[in-house]
Design a protein that fits this description.
Blueprint lengths: L12 E6 L3 H6 L12 E6 L2 E6 L8 E6 L4 H10 L7 H10 L33 H5 L6 E8 L10 E4 L2 E12 L4 E9 L8 E6 L2 E7 L11
Antiparallel strand pairs: 1-4, 2-3, 3-4, 5-8, 5-10, 6-7, 6-9, 7-8, 9-10
Amino acid sequence: FEVEVEDAAARYAMLAVQGPDARAAVAALADGELPARMRTATLRVAGAECLVCGTGYTGEDGVELLTEPEDAPALWDALVAAGAAPAALAARDTLRLEACFHLYGNDLSEDRTPIEAGLGWACKLDTDFIGAEALRTAGDPADRLVPFAFTGPGIPRQGNPILVEGKPAGVVTSGTLSPCLDQGIGMGYVPASAAAPGTPIEVDVRGRRRAAEVRGKPLYRKETE
């Protein structure tokens, strides 16, 4: 296809409005119906023209609003007045980790394949995308990215060593304290033989071994009516 890719990031500011009441708060300010999940619509929100996206990276419902940078401060103020609470990046990171959403630079890198990272569902190996042949011939991965939770005190952090049966075996790629679970949680690469949910592991947090357990995805599932 004859296409041209343009970096338009500087032309937009983005506000992510996420949470159980997010759509209602934005809908009250919008001049039309909000798009469904994974859909987009161009609407005016609090007077600002926005590309409204039914997306987010928190595991919660909500939308992301892309607007011109000069309109962002007034849009922010209108959203806060409508009941939205400002939240910094650490809050977003906690939510995405509870949902087991990958973060590039942490859980994903050029040194790991999508199969190792648990993203095989996104790779149609019978097509000719760039890298398909390498994945077809790679065989079963030696390591797997797994979610885990501490079974005692402690908070894992990126770079902490993971031990299996007392021996260094992997590394934490993302870690935090989950407010919803009230325990340390994270993701990290371990040998494929230790990737099954329920497998006991340890995480070396600044010289202290903390007991943990491999878990299934997501680490936290919100209650629904």
